[in-house]
Amino acid sequence: MIAALALTVAVAVAVFLFARRVWLLARLLRMGHAPGIARDDRVPERLRQEVVVVLGQRKLLERLVPGLMHAFIFWAFIVLFPAIPIAMIAIVDADAAPHWGWYEALANVFCVLALIGVATAFYIRKVVRPRRFEGSHLGEADLILAWIASIVTTLLLYHGTESQVWAWAHVLLILGFLVYLPYSKHLHIATAAVNVYFGRTRARGRLEPLRFDDPDVPEEEMRFGIGTVEDLTWKQMMDAMSCTECGRCQDACPAYATGKTLSPKLVIMGVRDHLFAEGPKALAAETYEGPAVAESGQLEEMVWDCVTCGACVQACPVNIEQIDHILDLRRHLVMVESRFPSEAEPMLRDVERQANPWGKPQAERAAWTEGLDVRVLEPGDPVPEYLYWVGCAASFDERARETARSTAKLLTAAGVDFAILGALEACTGDPARRMGNEFVFQAYAEQNVATLGEAGVTKIVASCPHCFNTLAHEYPDFGGSYEVVHHTELLASLVREGRLSPTASEEQITYHDSCYLARHNDVRAQPRELAAAVGQPVEMERREERTFCCGAGGAHMWMEERGGAINEERVREAAETGASTLAVACPFCTVMLDDGVKSSGRDLRVVDVATLLAESID
Amino acid sequence: MTVLVFVEHAAGEPDELSLQALAFALDFAGGNGVDAVLIGGADAASDLPVGTAHVAELDGGYAPQAWARAIAQLEPSVLVAAGSERGNEVLAHAAVMTGGALAANCVAAAPGDPAEVTRMRWGGSLLEEARIHGPVKLMTVAPHAVAPATAAGDPAVAPFTPELRDEDLVARVVERVDTSTGGLSLAEAPVVVSGGRGVGSPEGFAPLEELAGMLGGVVGCSRAVTMAGWRSHTDQVGQTGTKISPELYIPCGISGATQHMAGCKGAKKLLAINSDPEAPIMATADYAVIGDVAEIVPAITAELRRVSG
Asked: Is the ipTM of this complex over 0.95?
């Protein structure tokens, strides 16, 4: 009887303390703005994510040892759940507790697996000490691991002795853990599954649009990125509450790898620390005027290092979307504070005034077509099958123009009906958007959607992965939906259909995946088909969805690089394959990697796969 | 409400931009109740169209905090200055000292509490509507947004000696160097000789320095050179460095990346020296010499020396 009373009191206290904290977290989430894209559509796909990413631990198992370590503990957590009520019954009345032999055997196996998991975790943290833990709360992790070990050990002892003492110990440890949980980074065991559900399903390169010209959005709910804690979306808060500081994002980050301040992990930790420090004040205040989130830690410095390559998002086992945080912080700094690296100012001005990021005259947009038979669409002309969206780089940059010339020659040779917009084509607005200037981007989105609409365009082939991403996934938010392919996709299908017949040389080619193709848009096979059709492909270690950025993304084409050079790091990797040709499929990769080859004095030819294909057909 | 205007002056005359700020302030105050404050320069104050012209007896050299302190001691409720570098700097300090709110680069304003202002952002490409709250409101006026005040007045000139604190004197003039006889700035030089990766090393710039010196120009460089740490970023020509518009631009060993070309498109004539005839810069160059920079540049210098005797 006394045992029942004591247990009731213990459970009540623990549940009360737990609920009090959870209530605060729930109120914080309710304060969050709605995200800019739907988070509750495509239910079957989201449920599949739950099965694969949460139950199947797919992203964690990409690294076998730490993955198994986590999976053992996670699966044990699920299997051992019924042991809690059984132990509680045993405390009240030892005879009433069920003794299912099969369950105890299963539970014992998972207890041992969990202990192996904890031991492995300690081995990783104390002996291997990978760089991904730099900046994480190591002491907190040790405490949590020790706690888990105690929980399963007491259960094993209870199963072995059937002594009520161990049942008590087991239950009290669990209740203590329950209270500690929502105050710690281990909160992820409650939030991660939810966060995975609401993560992006498709079109991972699509940024959330800001709705500042929507008459349906009242002024006080309008947000210009993240200023104070009140500007966070609930998804961003969920991200912050789901991070357990594993550092896989930091490990994948090209900026971190080259000694820059940015660590995507520290960005999320910074947002989380700020949310917990300032969130309760904002909830309590009538009108809250707190510090900017960007002032938390080194966030303001970090956000400018990001190349938006998405390696962090790809690596995160719980679908945290670091880019959304970084971009929203940039947006506020640019649009509200006017505070950003000054060297990017000319680019923003040139995009805004001249419709391209280098301030070239629009009249020269079609200059690259000289000597080629390329139709420039005039108002009233018949609609071509494909509109070739050339992009600013391939229109104006000498090195990138070769890609446009090759693509046009190949399309003509294969008999594809295509045309370009010429001077009517304007910057998609992508560089301004990635820099944080949503105003300028949206003006171009509207202008280009109108131009494409007037021309009656339905199918687009784009040379630039950044244009491709914007046209395919971001313009639908502004009323423009098209069937968009990258030139490598179209060219690969033309080769497959026999409309282009290249001959493979003996040349060794290593293909560098562009982030906006391979990672954000799943275009990985087609450029490889082309490389294999014209030469002998060799692969780099970091490839496909785990590619390493060239250093130009996120408007870094127009910013000065701090720390080591990302492009040289990538060129080093390419050169180590022994290939003589470094094939690319993005004009910015072309420029960055060609610069990297020159500055590191390597002997590598950097060339677009379209140009390789054109050469092999000539 | 009295509106106080910080009037900059030189050679006994009020500055043009300050007269624009004064016109802005007169309009804001509805034509009356405007005073001026000047740092030294009673001469410049004598016919300003204001009620009182306060003249702080201070060194006019350079001491923005001390000037701001002098202005703050007049306890203005509205303070206006030109959106010049100096006006913005002094009002920023004054805003801190008075606990007021500052809106920079205003083009229009309406009194009230809060005061409504329209101001320029983004180098003038964006106009922002803003409100200034609080008992002390400070505004700087975007240059050339309003016509200058032309009417003459007969103000009461009131000299005063401000009480300064030690921390107000952290910046003071030590020496003046006239830039017109000293080094040319990269942005304004009539001739720029730039080196790229093709120059080979920091020492490789010596012949370029010599050539620039003979032509009355300065030396610039490409981003690759800055990244390699051969020269400082202040020498960098390009979209993310300095934009130049010389009569003659001589890029040596520079391939001509688009970001570099965006910084030198203002050049009248372009003479490229490069060993690679396929380099993108050849498409833009008016004249080109194909060859090694280390041979060509000294040859040009030698020829110049021979011709000029």
From this structure: no
